Structure formats: C-alpha cells, structure tokens
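Record type: monomer structure entry
Structure origin: computed from sequence
Chain ID: A
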Amino acid sequence: MNDHDWLAAQFEENRGHLRGVAYRMLGSLSEADDAVQESWLRLGRSDVHQVENLRGWLTTIVARICLDMLRSRKSRREEALETAAPEPSAKPAAAPDPEAEAVLADSVGYATLVVLDRLNPAERIAFVLHDLFDIHFEEIARITGRTPEAARQLASRARRRVRGVTTLPDHDLMQQRKVVERFLAALRAGDPAKLVELLDPAFSVQADAAAAPRGLPAEIHGAESWARAAIKEARGARLARLALVDGSVGLIVAPRGRLFRVLRFTFANDRIATMEVVGDPERLRTIEIGEISPQ
C-alpha cells in the first residue's frame, strides 16, 4: 500500500468522527461535509509522517476550517430557514440528506443546536471541542488564538447557556416534563381526547401573527375547541422537541438548529393552563432556550 492509499484509508476511518465534529460546530450537514472535504485536501498537501495522532491532527484541522467558516458567515440571523436562496457557487452543492441530518440533530439535541447557533464562533468551538470531544484547552487555545485560560472561560460561558437556567424545583420540572411529553405524544397521534385530558378546562392559546395557522384566530379559548383545531394543524408536531423555554418546560421547532417556533406553557393543577405560540423572529431572539437534562 502506497502513502496515498494509506492516508485515504486512515481518513475514511475517521470520516464519521470528523463529520460529527464539523456538524456540531456548523449546525449544517452540507457545510459539515464541505469542511470534511477541505480537511482531506489539506491532508493531501501536508507531511504527516511525524504526526503521532492522526485523528487528533485531523480534528484540529477540521476545527480550524469550521472556525474560519463561522467567522465568514454574514447576517446569519437573516438567513431564511429551509428555503434560503443558495448563494452562487462555482460548483453545485450536494443534495442534503434530511434523514442523516435529523439523526445527527437528535444525537446532539435540538436545544443544544439552537444555543450553539447563538454563540460567537470562539465560544462554539471551545464548547464543542472540550465538552463534546474532550480536546484539551491548550489545543483549543492554539485553534482560537486565545490563552488556555481564555479558552476555558469561553467553554464555561457556552456551557452555562447550553444548560439553561431554571428556578423550578426538580419535582415541578419533572411534572411539567411529563405533561408536555404526553401533550406532544397526543398531538402526534392525532388524539383530541387525550389532548383535552391534559388541558385545564379554562385553557387558552395565543399565537403571534407569524405563528397563527392560516384560517384560525390568533386566540382561542376552551380546551375542546382548541384540541379539535390543533389536530388538523399538527403536521409540524413531528419536528417539535422538548426544551427549557425561559426556565420552564416548553416545545421548540428548530430545523438545523435555527429556531422557527416556540410553544410556551403555563401550568395549573398538573395541566396546561395557557399556551403561547411564538414565531416572530424578533421575539424568538429574546427567548432563552436550554437543554432539559436526560431523565
């Protein structure tokens, strides 16, 4: 086996790992694949005979490529969600694989992707490399151009934001989680009777102009009347995931980590008393999103 074949074999052995690193940093499978391909090109131009840990070397290269990509993004908040017009390029982009992207997003956590999307590039790189891939801060410092202590602080700030903040006692948080999980399951199953069981008799829902379904009023009162209407408009329920929303359990819809809808609840007597559906981009930016710890 010649050197090129050996390098190619080593690279393919590490491709899945590199793709996972790049996806967590970029939040886009197509961009992650671009970063991995660029790392292969750089590998071919480098003398790695003295490299003792090729996987670590490749991880560092991918991280630097991703950092450059994050820094070069312009007006990321204005980028349309799934229907963004592609920028002209010298070559057509590879068709995205929605199933593969969904698997990756679930493995990372949608709430985590939302928070990562809100971090600055250095914070995102430091958190992903240290907390998710156990890279030492000395190496992160070299990648980001900071001191090890500064890299540690970057990861710490990012970690606090990813975890979210809540003042709820554990028992209350667990109870909210159970109710919202059952609520989401009933929506996905198309079962209005089970939905009504989870709603306070005086339940009301309010949606802003961006989130209100076409043909339905922005505000609805009454559990039964809303449940019947909700089942007809529940196509997006399969995309919803549990998350901490301003310190309480809520639901988010965030394809590719870009926040699209938030369902915010209040609770009374272990039922959902009110629901607010937020879709306005300006309002979405003010909502604090965080992970819900695994049970």
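Annotation 1: The beta strands are 199-207, 219-221, 240-245, 248-253, 261-268, 271-278, 289-290.
Annotation 2: The two ends are 49 Å apart (CA to CA).
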